[in-house]
Design goal:
four-stranded antiparallel sheet; Alpha-Beta Plaits; alpha+beta; globular; monooxygenase activity; 4 strands
Length: about 110
């Protein structure tokens, strides 16, 4: 399993951003190998993070090369005050089963 973590600082989001963001989310979910995602905000730093989980690097690459994703990347300075992407291989997950359906990704490894 792999994760792609997108960490960013916001500028002003407009309708074009929200539309493109929703389209990219739908595209990601339609890719075989997409396992799920979550979002986090750090109020102390003002940074946001979206973490996407993938069964393979090939699945992630499909999103990376998609024309709508490339469009968003080219326009990121309109909406973001900086970003970082971290691609990681998940080597292990563990825990109890109490999260159930709230965290189905734990069963993917």
């Amino acid at each position: 399993m792999y994760s792609s973590t997108f960490i960013f600082a916001k500028k002003q989001f407009d309708e074009a951003f929200h539309r493109l963001d929703q389209e990219i989310a739908a595209i990601a979910k339609s890719i075989p190998g997409y396992l799920g995602e979550e979002a986090w905000e750090n109020p102390q730093t003002g940074l946001f993070s979206n973490v996407y989980y993938w069964s393979s690097l090939e699945a992630l690459q499909i999103l990376v090369e998609h024309p709508r994703h490339l469009e968003a990347k080219a326009a990121q300075e309109n909406w973001l005050a900086g970003y970082q992407v971290i691609i990681s291989e998940v080597i292990k997950t563990y825990g109890d089963s109490k999260l159930g359906e709230k965290w189905p990704i734990a069963t993917a490894t």
